[in-house]
Amino acid sequence: MAGAGFQASENDGTWRHPAVITQAADSVEAQHRARVKRYTIIMSFRIPALLLAALTYSMFENAWISVAIIAVSIPLPWVAVLIANDRPPRRKNEPRPYNYGPESFTRTEVPAIEPARHTVIDG
């Protein structure tokens, strides 16, 4: 339906032309659930790794293999937190919050501060 000054388009969300939302980002809740799931999956390898180290030591009586398995499991919590806190990658059309290019360091675009008049009251 076209209103005053507005034109109807194919993407306006009418019943004849439903709005296309396949490009919409996941909700914050869905992103959080996915991050919790990744964290849980990564951390679920830690206890079995420690049990595998104990089992390996009891079977082969070689401490080096067990220490290697434990050494691999030590950074798992750190890796799990880093991966769980990572946000989805930015889209190409998503605006960037900061501009780090060489043009961001030019001072020509920064407006100068105008001197203000201050009234002094003697007392």
Automatic annotation (TrEMBL):
Pfam families: DUF3099 (PF11298). Keywords: Membrane, Transmembrane, Transmembrane helix. The chain crosses the membrane at residues 39-57, 63-84. InterPro entries: DUF3099. It comes from the Bacteria. This is DUF3099 domain-containing protein.
